């Protein structure tokens, strides 16, 4: 057949019409997902006992995972992808793609089983020998929440704002009373309830009209065939009077002013209600975590996503974020455990991430584990020792020549040696014997660098030593400086770091879609599942034996459940 010429657009060209000829003669991701969903044992696969026959859950799950493999996670984008993708059409086997609401419910069901899903995928990875269980790493990344940092407010500012909005709302109520004939015949409480109800109706109508104006403007700009309809001012006024009977008695010259007052009352009331809810949520969460301790004035809460927190990110400055952690095996970069937190500290993420990995994979005793300086703490070192894990952690080095880590501790003599060579001896014990204080008054008073070494008014540098925690940190630092420690930590950037790059680039995951801690955690686990599935797909595309296994068990569900 002659090649198609761009100069003859109407020429007839014969294409392969059968989907099977496009898909089934070679390894294809669609074939793998058809096999994968049959291997999974998910609870929502079970057919419903009531209602209309649903779409085959396995087939629909295969299409959704296939779309996610191509970076589409929103229900509407998945539906659009399924219409245009040959692989998705092959999976559907002629069955029409359901509406995006059905796809959305299926994704929600998948998210609800995120732990079970992740566990089963890790089991498949283990069966393919993708998990070495020799060396593992933990790392974290901060992902912007589905909320703006400009919608956050400190506790002190929130209280002040609530007081100002309350006063403003009272002033608006007073301003509209002259337009109400029966204002003096009913109680103050009943009057406010009546005004509030009618104000909400007016606000709703004005909001709808504004949205319609925006849609009309968009059509006017982008639709060349659009014909603008004549606006009917009378109809708008009649609609408002129907929704708010008190407007019927308002003089024509005061009508717009009264409508503006009602709209402002509804807007201010809604804003005040949102802030009061945020204040209550903040107080409840603080009490659950800290008991009756006083809430700091600078404690912030976000109105859009109350579970997210302000965090300093590496590349985008201060943002409203969640902090995600992954426990990664170094053999094929399989994610074995996850954790999502709204705390910016990485130190608090190590233990729950490790425990999640152990819940899925069993005990990790005996493995080597590496982490960056953000996870370096005495508590985490002790946790690793208790778990039987050989832990290597990077640690921060202070820039000051007189920082505590520049003072060398002698275990046998129980003394510190300062950078100038003077010996600091133990002077006293405090905090129930847990903390020892070391100093050398004579040497400090005679030292010409004393002003640079300490800010103490008496000019004496004192070193506090936690006998247990400082020992753990010193041993961990010595361990990190060994040849094996340096080799393990040198691989940290090439094992867990690429995981975040792969997820962000291949999934387009720059910001959370869901809101709330639970939704953020499940969403992150789904991305980790897809990361692991991509590793399994590498085995599929590169191994003829695994291709034969997949194709032998290949099965398309063509009928509805």
TrEMBL record:
Q: Quick one: signal sequence residues?
A: none
Protein name, entry field: IS1182 family transposase
Q: InterPro entries under this entry? A: IS1182_transpos (IPR047629), Tnp_DDE_dom (IPR025668)
Show where the Transposase DDE domain sits: 417-536
Q: Which organism is it from?
A: Lentibacillus cibarius
NCBIfam families associated with the record: transpos_IS1182
Q: Which Pfam families match?
A: DDE_Tnp_1_6 (PF13751)
């Amino acid at each position: 057949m002659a090649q198609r010429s761009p100069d003859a657009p109407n020429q007839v060209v014969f294409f392969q019409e059968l989907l099977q000829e496009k898909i089934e003669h070679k390894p294809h991701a669609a074939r793998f997902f058809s096999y994968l969903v049959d291997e999974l044992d998910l609870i929502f696969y079970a057919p419903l006992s009531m209602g209309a026959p649903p779409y085959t859950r396995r087939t629909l799950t295969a299409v959704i995972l296939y779309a996610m493999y191509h970076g589409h996670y929103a229900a509407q984008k998945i539906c659009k992808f399924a219409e245009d993708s040959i692989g998705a059409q092959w999976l559907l086997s002629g069955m029409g793609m359901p509406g995006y609401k059905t796809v959305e419910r299926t994704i929600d069901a998948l998210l609800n089983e995120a732990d079970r899903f992740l566990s089963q995928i890790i089991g498949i990875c283990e069966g393919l020998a993708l998990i070495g269980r020799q060396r593992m790493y933990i790392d974290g990344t901060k992902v912007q929440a589905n909320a703006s940092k400009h919608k956050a407010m400190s506790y002190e500012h929130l209280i002040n704002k609530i007081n100002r909005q309350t006063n403003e709302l009272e002033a608006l109520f007073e301003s509209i009373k002259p337009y109400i004939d029966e204002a003096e015949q009913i109680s103050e409480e009943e009057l406010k309830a009546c005004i509030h109800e009618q104000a909400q109706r007016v606000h709703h109508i004005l909001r709808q009209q504004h949205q319609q104006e925006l849609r009309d403007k968009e059509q006017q700009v982008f639709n060349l065939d659009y014909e603008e309809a004549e606006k009917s001012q009378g109809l708008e006024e009649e609609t408002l009077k129907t929704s708010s009977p008190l407007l019927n008695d308002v003089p024509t010259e005061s009508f717009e002013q009264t409508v503006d007052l009602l709209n402002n009352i509804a807007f201010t009331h809604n804003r005040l209600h949102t802030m009061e809810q945020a204040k209550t949520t903040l107080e409840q969460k603080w009490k659950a975590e800290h008991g009756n301790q006083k809430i700091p004035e600078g404690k912030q809460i976000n109105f859009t996503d109350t579970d997210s927190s302000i965090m300093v990110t590496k590349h985008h400055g201060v943002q409203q974020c969640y902090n995600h952690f992954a426990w990664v095996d170094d053999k094929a970069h399989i994610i074995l455990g996850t954790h999502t937190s709204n705390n910016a500290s990485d130190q608090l993420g190590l233990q729950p991430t490790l425990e999640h990995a152990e819940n899925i994979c069993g005990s990790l005793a005996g493995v080597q584990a590496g982490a960056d300086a953000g996870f370096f703490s005495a508590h985490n070192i002790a946790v690793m020792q208790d778990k039987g894990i050989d832990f290597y952690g990077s640690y921060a080095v202070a820039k000051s020549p007189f920082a505590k880590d520049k003072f060398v501790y002698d275990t046998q003599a129980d003394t510190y040696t300062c950078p100038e060579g003077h010996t600091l001896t133990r002077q006293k014990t405090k905090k129930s014997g847990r903390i020892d204080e070391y100093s050398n008054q004579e040497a400090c008073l005679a030292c010409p660098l004393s002003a640079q070494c300490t800010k103490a008014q008496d000019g004496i540098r004192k070193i506090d030593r936690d006998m247990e925690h400082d020992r753990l940190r010193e041993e961990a630092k010595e361990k990190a400086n060994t040849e094996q420690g340096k080799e393990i930590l040198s691989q940290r950037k090439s094992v867990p770091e690429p995981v975040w790059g792969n997820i962000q680039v291949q999934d387009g995951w720059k910001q959370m879609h869901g809101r709330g801690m639970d939704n953020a955690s499940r969403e992150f686990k789904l991305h980790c599942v897809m990361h692991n599935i991509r590793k399994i797909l590498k085995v599929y595309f590169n191994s003829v034996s695994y291709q034969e296994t997949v194709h032998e068990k290949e099965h398309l569900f063509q009928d509805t459940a």
